[in-house]
Each structure stands twice: as C-alpha cells, then as structure tokens.
Amino acid sequence: MIRVQARIEQSTLMKITSPILAIVLTLIFGSILFSAIGKDPIQAMQVLLIAPLSDMYNIGEMFVKMGPLLLCAVGLSLCYRANLWNIGAEGQLLMGALGGSAAALAFIDSTSSFALPITLICGIASGMFWAAIPTYLKLKFNSNLILTTIMFNYIALYLLLWAVHGPLRDPQGYGFPESALFSDITTLPILFDEGRIHLGVVFAIIAAVGAWVLLNKSHIGFQIRVFGQDEPAARYAGFNGKKISWIVMLFAGALAGLAGVSEVTGPIGQLIPSVSPGYGYSAIIVAYLGRLHPLGALLSATFMAVLYMGGDLAQIEIGVPTAVVGMFQGVLLFFLLACDFFIRYRVSFISNNSPIQE
Amino acid sequence: MDAELLSQVLFAAIKTGTPLLLIALGEVICEKSGVLNLGQEGMMLMGAVVGFLAAYTSGSVGLGVLGAIIIGMFMSLIFAFLVLHLGANQVATGLALTIFGTGLSAFVGSGVVGQTVQGFQPIVIPLLSDIPFIGHILFTHDLLVYLSFALAALVSYVATKTRIGLVIKAVGENPHAANAIGIKVLRVRYCAVMFGGAMAGLSGAYMSLVYTPMWIENMTSGRGWIALALVVFASWRVGRIMLGAYLFGLASIMHLVLQGMGWNISPNLLAMLPYVATVVVMVIISADHFKEKLLAPRSLGKPFDPRQMA
Q: CB contacts < 8 Å between A and B, how many?
C-alpha cells in the first residue's frame, strides 16, 4: 500500500533532486520515443547530449545559445519569485532586437566609439518599454498579465516582420526580408579566435551573478522574496507592491531586450525574421528548472543550450526535425512539476499487515 | 459598404470566429469548475495536426475530427493528472502543456507540411438560406459551424439550467462546501478539464480541416490564448462568448475589408489587429475590478486537495 502524507516543511533535498530526476525521466522518455520511431536511442542521445560538447567549436556554439536563454531566464526568475506571471520574454527579446537594429542601421556609416553602447542601450530600452506596457496595464487596469504579455509577444513578432519587410529592409537585399549587415562598429566583439563566443555571453553571466546579489543580498531582493511567498505579510511590513512589480518587470524586460540586441549585433549581424527560435518561451522552463534562482538558471540554461545544439545536430545526423527540442522541453517541465510533488508530500510504501504508526 | 460586401464580411466573421467559439466553450466549463488551463494553444495545435493526419491517411474527415477530439482529451488528461492529483501549479502546468503541444505537433506533422485534404464542404440549408441577407450569413456554412451553434446552445443550457451545471458551479465557487455535501470535487474537475480538451481538439480540427485545409506549423497562431481572453471578456457567460468569438473573427478579417476599401496598409501591421483588440478589450473589462471579482469562479486556479480535508 502506498501512503501519501503532506510534509510539514518543504523538503530542501527534493528541491535539488527534483530537477535531476526530471532530466533523467525526460531522457528515458526520449529514448522510448526514439525507439518507437525506429531510431537507435543510444545514438540519438549521443547526438542530442554528448555531440554538442564534443569539440571546441560546438562548445562555443553552446555558449552562444546559452546567452539569450540565460538573460531571459534570470529576468523571469525574479518575476516569478514575486508572483508576476510574465510570459513576455519572447516579445521583449524581439523588441530588443528590433530597437537595437534600428540604432545599428542608423550608425551604419559611423566610426564613433559610442555607436555600440548606444545600440545596446536602444535594445535594452526597447525590451524595457515592451515589458512596461503590460505592467502598467496590470497595475492601473488590473488586466491579466499572462494574457497581455502573450498578446505582446505576437504584436512584437508582427512589428518585427513589418520592419524587415518595410522600413528596415536592405535596399540592396534582392527583396529578401532582411536588414543590411551591420557595420563592424556596431558588432559585438568576438572573445576567442575560434568560434562565435561574443561579449553578449559575458553580459548574461554577469546578469545572473548580479541578479543573485540583488535577490539575496539587497533589501529589494528581500522584499521580492517576501512578496512572492506571503503577500499579506509583505503588505503588513509596508512593502510597496507596485514598486516591486515595476522593478522586476523592467529588469526582466531589460535583460530580454539585451538578449535580443546581443543576438542581432552578435552571432547574426543583421535583423532577420527568425531572430529567436523561441528563446523567450524556453526561458520559462530554464527558470523553473533552475528553481527560480539566478545561479540555478546558469546551470539549467547550459543544459537547455546543449539540448538546442543537440536538436540542430539531430536534424543533420539522424533526420529528426528540430521541433523535437520543443517537445523535450515540454516533457521536461511536466516531469519537473510532477517530481515537485515530493517536495510537498512524503510517500511511503507500507505492507498491508503492518500496523500504521501515527 | 454595400449589402453584398457586408454579407460576405459577416459570413467570414462567423467562419473565422468558429474555432474561437469552440475552444472557448470548452475553456468556460473548465474554468467554471475552478481549473484554469493555459494549455489551450497546445491542445488546439495537437487537435489540428492529429485531425489532419487522421483525415489525410484515412481519407475521412469524420475520422479526422474524432482523432482530434481524442487527442485533445488525452492532452487534457495529462494536465488534469498533474494539477488535480499531484497539486502542480495550474499556470506552470498549462504553459508546459502548450510548449509540449507546440513541439509535439511540429514533430508529428513534419512529414505532411503543405499537404492538403478535401475538407468539409459547405451545406446550404434549404429554405433557411433563402432568407434575405441573414440566410447567406448563417445558413450556407459547413457542418462544423452548425455543430458549433448547437454546442453553444447545449453548453449554455447545461451550464445554467441543469443539475450538472449547478454541480460544476458549486465545485468552482466553493470546493470545500461541495465536498462536504458529497460531491466528488476532483471527479467533476476531471470531467470539466477533459471536456475542455475535447473542444480544443475539435477547434484545432476546424483549423486544419475547414479553415485552411492543410497542416502548417503553429497554424493556430495564438487563437488558444485569445480564447482564454475571450472567456474573461464574456465574464464566463456562454451567450457573450458567442458574440465575442464573432467580434474577434471580424477583427481577424478586417484586413480583407480594409484592403477591399482601398486602404494600403502593410499586411503585417493588419495581422496585429486581433491581438491588439484582445488587449484593449481585456483592459476595458478588467478595469472594473469589482465586477470581475464578482463574476469569476471564486476558486479559479486554486488547488483542492481532499487528502488535507480529513
């Protein structure tokens, strides 16, 4: 017989074990799936998880993918800590890319050393602006944050498409919906000779550490945590809920905007319609898998970046569509949420004839 | 605008609003029972791809619809198990369902992208379709549109006039009280969630078998999310959901109207209209904070654990 008891206190051990267990279960699920469609599961897992780390170039690419995931996830972690369901990282990232690209194209003939910083600031400001509207609508009109941020993702996508088909299209681009290539002056420097690791990756790691300091070592961070855990207590303590909402939402928007502008001024080098393969949505899973902890996000963003790389390689090597990555992400979040059951409950197996001890 | 064009536009608004109506009818029952399922978009996409695959391989649109309903129910069952049995956060689980459904639908549909099927054909209802103006708008549609009229009437009737409707409402308003008078709260919620899944699957099938009879990745383009807003807009009332669905249908096809009137606006900017309309409508509705609180199911989104009752 299985007995389920609610725990009096949440299990700290399970909080750490649960993501690992979820990853293992996802891999087992993946192996079964690959067998079912007639692929060798061991080869598939090797391509998905080992091959992305097999040489220096692939490791570099993995870091390039980790950057935007981590930036978005760190911002989302703080929002979710404060009980603000911001699903808008994707739109904020796209707006960052759009605003940054507009600036970069304005500097296309410039030699000023301010060009790159101004481009980055434009991207960050665009992401913040895109986060500010739903925040304002929530605080002023009580509109549902989840639904407005999602609508803003779609609106941002169509704005981006409009821009690359219209005002930002390269006149010499043979009609392709792409901007002109940015000049070197507005391109993020590459850190190593080999590969494409650029300054944006460093920004991401700094952001994660900075957010950790903010959350754990500052008074504002303390307020964010109290607000998320016990809103009445936070109000009783006189914490200003509106101020905290603005801080975490603008912070998240700024980081997502930075992710977007870093993509267009980094590995891509121009504005294209497919700036993001859904980084803003994947970042939700990264944030959860990292336990809404900025440094946890560092680990989970790395894992997710490996999965993205693996998805690309799997398409080339074993002919599996890249969409398999999205499916794995969903399954991973399912298993994580299921395993979190054990944080709140103790499950014990007892034989029927043993006396139940209370 | 002349009467001919107006009738064409209203006809198209109903056709475009139908998938929204179908999925929102499912979600409103789900929410009335106190469960917020944000996985609508994922279930709808799975319904669209499975419906298409079933129809494509069997040659029967009926089997396509059936397959879509079954996959929708199966998807919602995963959701229901996680939130009802394991007490997982409804928001996060719904998001997981959408991410999973988006990925899985692209995965299983990758082989048939761009293929077409012979979808449902229009059925012109004799006599009724001869009514001037209204006849064409309402009675020259396909089978699923007529089905959506019937389902709207049925859901409205069941929700407001029957014991089942009362039980669902009781569970959504106060699960503890419902439990105390012997209602199996979790069982009611399972049924409500799975009804939502079935309707989301059907709505997806409408997209891939009628609206554009083919499968394209992410072809629902946010309709599942708009439906969630629609339920809030309609303040959980079926009649208003129908009206809202057709209004959003109208917003989605406004670009055709504007182009017909000779306006030269970028199609990408016009494609934003339904999403902007959703935000605007939501702001107007939610601004009346008191009213919204009064109308929403009181336990919406809150878990209920019978284990902690004893």
A: 142
